[in-house]
Amino acid sequence: MRILPVALLAFLALSVTPPHAGAVEPIEDAFGLRIGAEFVPLEGPDAFTTLNGSRAYYFAPETPSPFFTLYLAQITPITHLVHTVIAIGPGPDLQTCLEHRANLMPGLTERYGKSFTFEPPAGPAYEKDYEIILQADQKRGVGVTCGGNADVILQIIYVDDVLSDLAELERLQLASEATDKLVL
Known about the structure:
By secondary structure, the protein is α+β, with helices and mostly antiparallel strands. The chain is about 25% helix and about 30% strand. The chain has three helices and ten strands; from the N terminus they run H-E-E-E-E-E-E-H-E-E-E-E-H. The strands form two sheets. The chain has an eight-stranded antiparallel sheet with strand order 3-4-5-6-10-9-8-7. The protein has a two-stranded antiparallel ribbon with strand order 1-2. Strand 7 and strand 8 form a beta hairpin.
């Protein structure tokens, strides 16, 4: 199965802050993984895949969804804190995928707040669009999209922007340390 690149981080960079109605829950967990919690990854070539240059570790969810078959966690490389949780399932075609997304969104918006549609301005041609819930005060969001080339997939991504930034800083620190070791 071809995995869509993780483009959801782009939506957190938007200056648009959609209001959410009433009392909503903060986005804290996804499929049994707590955002910001330590995740000790398994090692080995079958324990992870690479998305946008970063490892995404496979995990078995506590609460699987009938819509998804593959679950991934991205973590900060030094402190091992979960910053992104991704679930992927078969579409199997665009219309069915959009129906699945429409079935998922009411529960998500009831729990986390109002959603809006975001079409990546320069995203890959196979991405339809994202339906996104932003919690700007928490710097967290969840997005659901349909896309793919030959095989259409449904994808949901939970992201913590602050921890994603920390992951990038830790990657740079590791790269710098590796370079320093080569110089010595």
